[in-house]
Design a protein that fits this description.
about 475 residues, 2 domains
Length: about 475
């Protein structure tokens, strides 16, 4: 590897490491990610099953079992907990490995895309950098979001589809269908978009031929349909999927909008990709000469269209959040990288003529990577968010027996992070229904239930009371 390309690799490693690692090793998590962690952790220890996952003793959203999403990601992370135990870093290690696997998939796709472009083939770090600097990407990794897992399957399906168009391998067509199934079995409808990748690639590049394009569009769709048809014959699987579709998916789409207009997801997409677009654009503008006839232009447009196809369907609903688009970001990063690759190659060639500059950039990249690792060591286990809440949860867990069901003020019920931390670290469930328990909590300044004496636990935001009634336990 020449010094200029080595510098690109080290800069990519340093920047991505700095954005990813220090935030990943700290305690505290976004509400959704904590819910998913608790469900997987419970399943690993026999509380709930793959088809009937559980969040707490009282369930969630008027259901005893957890059906916010299909069960695959929880099952996969439950295996992770069984292997490595219950330490706070286990779910973070899962997210970190998912990020590394995504890097491997990006490199594999880049090799496939540049197989005839020898000089561009060594720029695999470039799409990784354009993907890794997107805020939603490292935010999802920090917070154990389902998009981390689903993105692996969607990106793998895109790889199967594009490589299959070139080779004609039927196994890749079946593999693409299987991976789309895994994506939808992780987070439902958003995992379908790779089915359109062969058509969009053929539409923009005319590579592979119309017959092969139809093969790699229809076979994965048939595989997907057959797998779900087989699952439908399994009573436990059918009950899980019916509950998810009827009680959660359709209800949420119709009753719980999160944005005011359907264009919000496209605005979020533009904002998220502003950094990569500016960086790739600066490379193109900084090149010594233009190249309007670049052979990468059409494939780049095809990849951008594939990524856009993973975002645009979300406009059909008013349930939109910017991180929902994260599985579509790898094709977008590849498209931007492919578009700017000829210009980057020229810039790196010019850079290589200045011996000291590549060495200086390599040193800077290595220094940033070392600093990110050092910062991660220093920040290990410290709160990244909810510091007072985590403090109180630790104090409560040191007093209240593991597995207890404790009373709480009704306004605390929807403090999902509080519930999540209590369940994740101490198996403690909350009950806001006013029934008697051996322990109860309320907010500072609020009264405890009748018959509960305040317990001095050194809490910052909550009050803990010891009561005169019995305690429940997780069943």
């Amino acid at each position: 590897m020449d010094p200029a390309r080595r510098a690109l690799v080290l800069i990519t490693a340093g920047v991505c490491g700095l954005l990813l690692l220090p935030g990943l090793v700290r305690e505290g998590m976004f509400m959704d990610g904590m819910l998913y962690t608790v469900v997987a952790h419970n399943e690993a220890r026999g509380i709930g099953t793959f088809w009937e996952p559980r969040f707490s003793q009282l369930g969630l959203a008027n259901m005893d079992t957890f059906h916010e999403h299909p069960p695959l990601a929880f099952g996969l992370q439950a295996l992770w907990f069984r292997l490595f135990g219950s330490a706070f870093w286990v779910e973070r290690a899962y997210a970190f490995v998912a990020a590394l696997l995504m890097v491997a998939l990006l490199l594999g796709l880049w090799r496939e895309l540049t197989r005839n472009e020898e000089r561009a083939r060594g720029l695999g770090a470039w799409p990784v950098l354009l993907w890794g600097i997107v805020p939603q990407v490292f935010w999802c990794t920090h917070n154990n979001m389902l998009e981390n897992t689903m993105g692996l399957f969607t990106t793998g399906a895109v790889w199967c589809g594009l490589r299959g168009l070139r080779t004609g391998s039927p196994a890749l067509a079946v593999g693409a269908g299987g991976l789309v199934f895994l994506a939808t079995f992780t987070k439902g409808v958003p995992g379908l978009f790779p089915l359109g990748a062969p058509f969009l690639w053929w539409l923009f590049t005319r590579q592979g031929g119309a017959r092969r394009m139809l093969l790699f569009t229809l076979v994965p769709a048939i595989v997907l349909a057959l797998v779900y048809l087989l699952l439908w014959q399994w009573p436990e699987a059918r009950a899980n999927l019916e509950t998810y579709v009827d009680a959660r998916l359709m209800h949420r789409i119709s009753a719980k909008p999160t944005v005011e207009h359907r264009w919000q997801i496209l605005l979020d997409l533009f904002n998220s990709q502003l950094g990569p677009m500016m960086l790739a654009g600066a490379v193109v503008l900084g090149s010594t000469r233009g190249d309007p006839a670049s052979p990468t232009a059409r494939p780049a447009l095809a990849l951008l269209a594939i990524g856009f196809s993973g975002v645009a369907p979300m406009m059909l609903t008013l349930v939109q959040k910017s991180f929902y688009s994260v599985p579509a970001f790898p094709p977008i990063a590849l498209g931007l990288a492919l578009w700017s690759a000829p210009a980057l190659t020229r810039l790196l060639d010019l850079l290589a003529l200045r011996r000291r500059l590549p060495k200086g950039l390599s040193f800077a990249g290595g220094t940033v990577l070392f600093a990110s690792v050092a910062a991660s060591v220093l920040l290990w286990g410290r709160p990244g968010r909810d510091a007072d809440m985590l403090h109180d949860v630790a104090r409560i867990g040191a007093i209240v027996p593991r597995g207890a069901l404790i009373g709480c003020a009704p306004e605390l019920w929807e403090h999902w992070n509080l519930q999540g931390y209590l369940l994740r670290y101490h198996d403690i469930s909350l009950d806001p229904r006013g029934r008697p328990h051996a322990w109860a909590i309320s907010t500072v300044g609020a009264d405890l239930p009748e018959g509960c004496a305040p317990r001095d636990a050194g809490l910052r935001t909550l009050r803990l009371g010891a009561c005169t009634s019995g305690s429940g336990a997780m069943k």
